[in-house]
Backbone:
């Protein structure tokens, strides 16, 4: 989620910012503990495992990428690739196994796993303990045996006869058995596992779907209870769901096989996305929507929830599951995920103390919650004099909705929030406030990004941090945002500040005002001279010098908020000077100095100390003949010399450049050009356009357009042609005193 911090070309916290979301996790791995954490609503137990089942392993085996779980046995599990359709059997102990093509099923007794392969003319059952095999011929011809299913160690076929459908059971080294009790007019017969002792037989009779249980030992079919459709069967219960997509939502029912008593599980009665799956583990009935991470919206039915029929306890076992399947020991295996544990294959089992738990058996290496797999965030210090901006960006493990980035400036408390807007390419952030002319003050910042999981699975993604924005001090920057401010005093003695920014594009290119000017205070009419002085007092923001009518000079230190601290008297006798300028380092010591000309034309240097209570050393005479000028402006080092430079306008409107030598004196003057009498006192704006060079402003007289003269860095032609400034609020009233 990128956020652009503009240095000067756009004085705001963020321009257009892009976000990279919903991309692949990449090679980032997630190490999952062996057991899940306790869950709300009940206690999650570390489920016990039968001696022949998978061992508790703190380093789960790998789960195959993009594969569905289609079977869980005693020694391993079966998956089918969504990409190739190949089926793979893997052992719980070490993940070893083999991949097969074609249709295949995993079936198990209480002690042994079998793989059943469907071929064009035969069914092959392989015993994984002995590697022995059983082959049953099949045929598509009338009267030929056809595949009907498998359960435990038995394979089932049907044969159509004149008397009706015959269901036969095939077991290795045992004569074939004809199932008794199945209606002769049954059609579309399918046999699937139910319990270690029984298979489930589903069929159609007179156009109606019916079912029943088949005793695997005797081969006798037992019809299911009327009105109850056993979607899943355990040794003690039947469970099924209406899977309603109405406003009522899905409903789950459980029947006691011994008594026939039916109870309804407390499934939230809210609209469903459909495809609810159910399972049974001991006295627990489990439900949750099939689909896993692929859901496009949140739902209370995503989580795999377990409800105890006896104790009425209800707990969340997993945050989601793509699918789950019953195991021969009465446990349930689910391909899903749990926050803090990650994605993979989980074994869900009940323990002797009446609790139920999930243990990871096989891990995909992906997290269940949204995580950042890559990010670009500011370092501790962001110097906006060296870079033009900064982009925040996070690459997330999956899609989020309502992503939001909040950046807060610690000193002012100003908070900026950027929200997601749709885009044909990538989501784009823009200001919540449509005024894009906001600024980025220097100082400490904190940031926080959040994004809700698009499917609601897992907590919202959150990341946060801090950084500092720095720039070198600008003589006309009073709110510490790197862009020049203009101060004006009205006829009532009230002081106002107008912030500006440089817009390099659009119709109003050039220097613009950000909005309404800010009122700073009254009583400024007592001064006959006010000068922006740069950083005289060591606060890293611009200060003011003000001379009252008795000649006392006062220093107003900038606070960095756009206003000033209480004044401090720094000297007397300044009524002797007709021109004063400050804000430039003339001596090369890194401190701001001041210049003044007396009425006899002598130029005096006041070297800066950096001390707010005594900002200047005793004055030093550095020249004479300056009475020919009606304005002097310390513009800083605009020509690449040893120190700050000076421009001076003579009474004919000609502007002259005095290159600083670095010792407080200047080289002989160089003519810049004429016509500068079209402006009131010139203003050393600092770097107004963000190109790293110091510029000059001229505010027009008689309602003429103000202009910005951008520096070239060449002392022979130090300024480019003037650009019109769009700062009407400080120029519409020519009686305003602007500095």
Residues:
């Amino acid at each position: 989620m990128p956020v652009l911090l503009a240095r000067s070309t756009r004085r705001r916290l963020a321009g257009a910012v892009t976000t990279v979301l919903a991309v692949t996790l990449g090679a980032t791995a997630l190490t999952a503990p062996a057991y899940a954490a306790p869950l709300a609503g009940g206690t999650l137990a570390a489920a016990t495992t039968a001696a022949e089942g998978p061992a508790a392993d703190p380093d789960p085996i790998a789960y195959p990428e993009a594969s569905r779980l289609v079977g869980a046995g005693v020694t391993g599990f079966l998956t089918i690739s969504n990409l190739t359709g190949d089926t793979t059997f893997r052992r719980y102990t070490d993940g070893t196994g083999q991949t097969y093509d074609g249709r295949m099923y995993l079936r198990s007794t209480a002690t042994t796993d079998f793989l059943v392969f469907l071929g064009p003319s035969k069914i092959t059952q392989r015993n994984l303990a002995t590697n022995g095999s059983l082959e049953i011929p099949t045929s598509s011809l009338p009267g030929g045996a056809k595949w009907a299913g498998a359960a435990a160690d038995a394979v089932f076929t049907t044969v159509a006869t004149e008397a009706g459908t015959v269901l036969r059971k095939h077991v290795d080294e045992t004569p074939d058995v004809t199932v008794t009790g199945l209606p002769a007019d049954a059609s579309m017969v399918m046999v699937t596992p139910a319990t270690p002792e029984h298979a489930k037989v589903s069929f159609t009779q007179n156009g109606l779907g019916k079912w029943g249980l088949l005793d695997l030992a005797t081969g006798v079919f037992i019809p299911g209870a009327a009105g109850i459709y056993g979607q899943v069967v355990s040794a003690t219960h039947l469970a099924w769901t209406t899977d309603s997509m109405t406003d009522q939502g899905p409903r789950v029912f459980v029947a006691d096989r011994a008594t026939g008593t039916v109870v309804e599980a407390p499934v939230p009665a809210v609209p469903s996305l459909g495809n609810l799956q159910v399972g049974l583990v001991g006295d627990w009935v489990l439900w949750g929507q099939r689909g896993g991470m692929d859901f496009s919206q949140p739902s209370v039915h995503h989580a795999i929830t377990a409800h105890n029929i006896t104790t009425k306890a209800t707990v969340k076992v997993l945050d989601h599951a793509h699918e789950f399947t019953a195991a021969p020991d009465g446990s349930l295996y689910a391909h899903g995920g749990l926050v803090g544990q990650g994605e993979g294959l989980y074994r869900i089992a009940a323990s002797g103390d009446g609790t139920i738990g999930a243990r990871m058996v096989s891990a995909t290496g992906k997290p269940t919650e949204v995580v950042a797999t890559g990010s670009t965030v500011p370092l501790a210090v962001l110097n906006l004099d060296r870079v033009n901006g900064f982009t925040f960006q996070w690459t997330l493990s999956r899609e989020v909705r309502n992503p939001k980035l909040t950046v807060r400036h610690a000193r002012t408390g100003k908070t900026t929030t950027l929200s997601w807007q749709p885009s044909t390419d990538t989501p784009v952030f823009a200001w919540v406030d449509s005024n894009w002319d906001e600024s980025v003050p220097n100082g400490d910042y904190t940031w926080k990004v959040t994004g809700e999981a698009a499917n609601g699975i897992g907590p919202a993604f959150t990341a946060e941090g801090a950084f500092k924005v720095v720039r070198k001090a600008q003589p006309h920057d009073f709110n510490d945002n790197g862009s020049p401010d203009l101060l004006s005093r009205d006829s009532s003695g009230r002081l106002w500040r107008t912030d500006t920014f440089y817009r390099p594009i659009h119709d109003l290119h050039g220097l613009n005002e950000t909005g309404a000017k800010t009122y700073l205070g009254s009583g400024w009419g007592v001064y006959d001279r006010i000068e922006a002085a740069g950083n005289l007092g060591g606060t890293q923001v611009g200060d003011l010098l003000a001379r009252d009518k008795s000649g006392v000079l006062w220093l107003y230190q900038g606070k960095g908020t756009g206003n000033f601290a209480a004044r401090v008297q720094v000297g007397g006798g300044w009524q002797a000077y007709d021109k004063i300028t400050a804000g430039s380092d003339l001596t090369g010591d890194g401190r701001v100095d001041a210049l003044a000309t007396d009425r006899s034309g002598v130029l005096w240097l006041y070297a800066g100390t950096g001390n707010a209570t005594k900002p200047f050393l005793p004055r030093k005479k550095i020249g004479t003949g300056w009475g020919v000028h009606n304005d002097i402006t310390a513009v800083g080092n605009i020509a690449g010399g040893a120190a700050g430079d000076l421009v001076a306008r003579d009474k004919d409107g000609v502007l002259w450049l005095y290159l600083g030598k670095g010792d407080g004196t200047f080289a002989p003057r160089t003519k810049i050009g004429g016509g500068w009498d079209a402006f009131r006192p010139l203003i050393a704006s600092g770097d107004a356009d963000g190109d790293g060079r110091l510029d000059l402003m001229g505010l027009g007289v008689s309602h003429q357009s103000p202009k910005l003269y951008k520096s070239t860095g060449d002392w022979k032609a130090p300024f480019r042609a003037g650009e019109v400034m769009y700062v009407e609020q400080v120029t519409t009233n020519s009686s305003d005193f602007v500095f």
Observations:
- The radius of gyration is 41 Å.
